């Protein structure tokens, strides 16, 4: 009898205890995204912790931790038997072991057992069985659900094939690393409160490396490191030695002595190359050592032809060197860098080698180029280490210091540095600050002085042109710099939004790679603003998110604050007011201390929300003060108009007429906004004001009609500056414009706008400005103007609504009477129907003309269209779409399973049609998914269809084929057996094609 139990240690079959570990939902989702999961990363990246923390997400699961003994396939097979011993049917594995079965046979049986139980096996430390016969045992499990955790890549052909087929998913260090949000959650869990800059510094320092992040949180909590030290962490900082003692054991413990010494001495340099270390360390085996360190799981990673250690590991290693050794190596490295033409690396080496004057020389020569390439942090950290004599020798360094502060949005510090810089660079730098912060009033005097003092006239003209553009003086800007006509900001400020969007997107495509932040000139964020104005809030939100990510990459608080503001605009245009308010307040918090201009848009968004709520808060005056102080008339107009628009939209929600004083104030505010837009030549702003005036009843029709023709999207789309927020509200404005045009006998047509808004035959006269939604799927519900109806007046009104909703063509009055009141005398039934019709009409058409939503003549009918939607009609249209239509599968899966209960025969018939149509539609969509190579989606669709109707054979066939493609042989059998059982309960047997498919798939199964 086999003694396999001697090789099976129970501790290896238990997942580790991870009490207090951080939950990471994005990783929990990734863990279930494929049948086979491969998690590859070096020590400290939380592979084991992540799987153990989210083990429940895998459903039924078993665990096996390998060790070096598992290179023996018999030991590995013993571990498998122990790990799966808790699953039903696992006794068979022990019997096979006792009979001396081969390890490979045991692994294949283990895979079948996992599939039969739909369980997942987690194999930790899988690198111990990555090669030889043990690897064959592990590879035999790939037909089941398995998660392999490894420190080194598992490059097996089977894994590659599974990845190409969408059945396997790799998670590597980049995915396992903490995001900034996760790092913030970790710090909070450790009772460490970090501000935004300190949190970003912590993330930059740890690069999201989980073990380093946890140690750093511990050190911060214990006070061994202060938040202020994060940005300039010294390798000799108190506490680092003990903080990373575990890391040192984990990384350096297994290393050969020569490799350990090599790695420690190389820590003087950030980027490691064979040429550098061969010369500086006098190590002829540098190339081989680097390759060995990168391939051995020691946190040395390759980036092209160079290698690097993690910053915290490098700091710890550097602390092990004596100061004399570090200085000597740094000086030799600096000489090597200068000789090979790499001055940026030479600066850091000169500073480490205590040669600051040499570093200052290189900074003065190359610093501005490095800064333009986005190396601001490197330049700043070098500058602050220079002693006073370097600044006296190289006064141009003050200009560089000012540029560095300006790139980091530290404008007061930048101005102070520029005041100490030589002429003309110092004054030019000050002007650039005022251009960056859009303060044309402050830039003008300096620019005049620069022209008098013989600064480069070309540079001054370009600056004066941008300053004129910032002030809203478009003609003067173009005279000074005709090239501005090709800029997105010029097109925006003259009201040509479509051209501005095109130019912004062209500019955004060039915002790649290392660079400095453009601040208010960021093309992605300009694109977001334009998309919100043009009524494309989803695009606006996407661009704002991309701009936010770019702000994080550029480490620019200005860009981050502006991105949050533009996110607020997108959310406001989409009608999501609470998150918009949150975004605006977050933007104001981020903008504190940067520049007043940066706060204008956030204040104006909050001013709109205050006006919408009828509140007289402080955001409108704050927006006007900041915009006026900067001298930017365009922003003054925008701030005035946005606040007034909030009042316009609030008045549209009220049923009673506004008081004269409110209208007078509103009229004056709109006039002020129009005057600002007129002064700076913004035609779009003027058009938006004219439509808002008309919508509020304080302006004439003719200018509004002209505005609608020039800016039709203000009525056809949910623009940030639309005269009404909702589609129905804009339809009401359009209806009134149409009536006015007809009354004045104007030749213009609004047909294009009407069609875009959903009225190909023209918007109805006297539009009520609200919509009606009828829900029949699931529970019956009626919403009028966004509010759910709870008091129906008469119970039969519900039945009548349901009856009319399932007969979209309508029905005769006497047929409706017979259906609703079958047992009543004709006179009584007719009177009851009349009362019921009145009750339903009162609900549907509150505030609307009679007959707008409900025809009440001899033929009764709901009038479906853009203003009245019935969810059943939309579902029926979806069911009629061809399989494979983009988005159809997701929408089918979201459909409720049934129509509301009713005693009415017509409703029951509609419910039966719907119930019989949904499962085959899901099955057909599953077949289309299979044809497109999406086996997991096909399985989901077919499984959902069979839950609705277990006897839907077409769905069973799709499910069998999907599970076969996914390698779930036992699942094929379960699907067929369940189908046979469902059909048998109906006295039926499977069709020949179903039987043939099952036989074919099971005969081919391994």
UniProtKB/TrEMBL annotation:
Protein name, as recorded: AAA family ATPase
SMART domains in the cross-refs: BTAD
Keywords (A to Z) from UniProt: Plasmid
Cytoplasm listed as a keyword: no
Tagged with keyword Transcription: no
InterPro entries with a match to the protein in the record: AAA_22 (IPR049945), AfsR-DnrI-RedD_regulator (IPR051677), BTAD (IPR005158), WH-like_DNA-bd_sf (IPR036388), WHD_MalT (IPR059106)
Chain ranges of the Bacterial transcriptional activator domain: 870-1002
Bilayer-spanning residue ranges: none
Gene Ontology MF annotations: ATP hydrolysis activity
């Amino acid at each position: 009898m086999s003694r396999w139990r001697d090789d099976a240690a129970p501790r290896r079959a238990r997942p580790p205890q991870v009490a207090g570990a951080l939950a990471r939902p994005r990783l929990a989702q990734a863990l279930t995204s494929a049948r086979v999961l491969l998690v590859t990363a070096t020590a400290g990246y939380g592979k084991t912790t992540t799987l153990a923390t989210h083990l429940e997400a895998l459903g039924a699961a078993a665990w096996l931790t390998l060790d070096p003994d598992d290179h023996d396939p018999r030991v590995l097979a013993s571990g498998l038997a122990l790990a799966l011993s808790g699953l039903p049917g696992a006794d068979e594995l022990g019997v096979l072991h006792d009979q001396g079965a081969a390890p490979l046979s045991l692994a294949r049986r283990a895979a079948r057992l996992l599939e039969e139980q739909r369980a997942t096996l987690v194999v930790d430390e899988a690198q111990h069985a990555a090669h030889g016969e043990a690897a064959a045992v592990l590879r035999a499990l790939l037909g089941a659900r398995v998660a392999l955790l490894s420190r080194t890549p598992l490059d097996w052909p089977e894994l590659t094939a599974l990845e190409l087929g969408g059945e396997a998913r790799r998670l590597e260090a980049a995915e396992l690393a903490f995001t900034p949000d996760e790092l913030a959650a970790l710090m909070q869990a450790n009772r460490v409160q970090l501000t935004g800059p300190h949190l970003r510094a912590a993330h930059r320092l740890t690069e999201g490396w989980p073990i380093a992040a946890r140690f750093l949180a511990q050190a911060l909590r214990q006070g061994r490191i202060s938040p202020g030290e994060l940005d300039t962490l010294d390798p000799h900082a108190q506490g680092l030695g003990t903080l990373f003692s575990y890391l040192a054991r984990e990384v350096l413990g297994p290393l050969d002595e020569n490799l350990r010494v090599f790695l420690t001495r190389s820590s003087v340099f950030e980027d490691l190359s064979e040429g550098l270390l061969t010369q500086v360390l006098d190590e002829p085996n540098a190339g081989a050592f680097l390759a060995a360190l990168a391939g051995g799981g020691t946190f040395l990673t390759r980036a092209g032809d160079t290698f690097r250690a993690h910053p915290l590991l490098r700091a710890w290693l550097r602390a092990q060197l004596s100061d004399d050794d570090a200085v000597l190596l740094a000086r030799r490295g600096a000489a090597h860098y200068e000789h090979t033409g790499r001055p940026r690396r030479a600066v850091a080496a000169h500073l480490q080698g205590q040669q600051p004057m040499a570093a200052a020389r290189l900074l003065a020569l190359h610093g501005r180029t490095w800064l333009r390439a986005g190396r601001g942090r490197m330049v700043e950290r070098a500058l602050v280490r220079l002693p006073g004599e370097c600044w006296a020798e190289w006064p141009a360094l003050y200009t560089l210091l000012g540029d560095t502060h300006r790139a980091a949005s530290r404008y007061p510090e930048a101005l102070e540095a520029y005041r100490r810089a030589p002429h003309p660079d110092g004054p030019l730098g000050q002007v650039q600050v005022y251009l960056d912060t859009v303060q044309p009033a402050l830039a003008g005097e300096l620019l005049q002085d620069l022209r008098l003092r013989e600064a480069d006239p070309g540079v001054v003209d370009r600056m004066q042109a941008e300053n004129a553009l910032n002030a809203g003086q478009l003609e003067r800007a173009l005279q000074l710099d005709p090239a501005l006509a090709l800029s997105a900001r010029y097109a925006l400020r003259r009201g040509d939004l479509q051209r501005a969007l095109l130019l912004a997107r062209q500019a955004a495509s060039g915002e790649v790679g290392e660079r400095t932040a453009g601040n208010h000139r960021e093309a992605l964020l300009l694109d977001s603003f334009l998309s919100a104005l043009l009524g494309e809030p989803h695009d606006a939100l996407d661009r704002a998110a991309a701009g936010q990510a770019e702000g994080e990459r550029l480490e620019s608080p200005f860009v981050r604050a502006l991105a949050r503001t533009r996110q607020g605009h997108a959310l406001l245009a989409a009608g999501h007011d609470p998150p918009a308010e949150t975004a605006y307040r977050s933007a104001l918090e981020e903008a504190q201390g940067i520049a007043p201009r940066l706060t204008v848009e956030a204040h104006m968004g909050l001013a709109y929300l205050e006006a919408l709520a009828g509140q007289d808060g402080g955001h409108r005056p704050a927006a006007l003060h900041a915009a006026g102080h900067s001298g930017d008339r365009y922003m003054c107009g925008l701030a005035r108009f946005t606040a007034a628009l909030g009042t316009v939209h609030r008045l549209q929600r009220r049923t009673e007429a506004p008081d004269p004083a409110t209208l007078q104030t509103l009229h004056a505010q709109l006039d002020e906004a129009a005057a600002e837009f007129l002064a700076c030549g913004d035609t779009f702003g003027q058009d938006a004001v004219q439509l808002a005036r008309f919508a509020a009843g304080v302006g004439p029709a003719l200018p509004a009609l002209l505005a609608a023709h020039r800016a039709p999207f203000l009525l056809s789309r949910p623009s940030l500056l639309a005269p009404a927020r909702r589609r129905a509200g804009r339809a009401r404005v359009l209806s009134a414009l149409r009536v006015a045009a007809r009354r004045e006998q104007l030749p213009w047509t609004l047909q294009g706008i009407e069609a875009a808004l959903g009225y190909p035959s023209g918007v109805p006269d006297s539009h009520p400005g609200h919509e009606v939604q009828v829900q029949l799927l699931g529970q019956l519900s009626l919403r009028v103007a966004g509010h759910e109806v709870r008091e129906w007046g008469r119970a039969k009104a519900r039945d009548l609504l349901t009856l009319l909703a399932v007969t979209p063509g309508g029905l005769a009055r006497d047929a409706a009477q017979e259906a609703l009141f079958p047992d009543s005398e004709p006179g009584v039934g007719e009177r009851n129907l009349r009362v019921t019709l009145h009750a339903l009409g009162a609900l549907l058409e509150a505030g609307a003309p009679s007959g707008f939503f409900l025809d009440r003549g001899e033929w009764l009918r709901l009038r479906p269209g853009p203003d009245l939607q019935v969810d059943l009609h939309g579902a029926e249209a979806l069911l009629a779409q061809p399989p494979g239509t983009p988005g159809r599968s997701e929408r089918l899966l979201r459909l409720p399973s049934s129509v509301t209960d009713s005693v009415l025969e017509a409703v029951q018939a509609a419910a039966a049609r719907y119930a019989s149509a949904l499962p085959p539609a899901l099955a057909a969509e599953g077949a289309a998914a299979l044809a497109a190579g999406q086996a997991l989606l096909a399985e989901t669709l077919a499984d959902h269809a069979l839950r609705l109707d277990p006897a839907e054979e077409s769905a069973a066939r799709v499910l069998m084929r999907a599970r076969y493609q996914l390698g779930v042989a036992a699942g094929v059998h379960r699907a067929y057996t369940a189908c046979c059982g469902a059909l048998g309960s109906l006295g039926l047997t499977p069709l020949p094609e179903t039987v043939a498919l099952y036989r074919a798939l099971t005969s081919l199964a391994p």
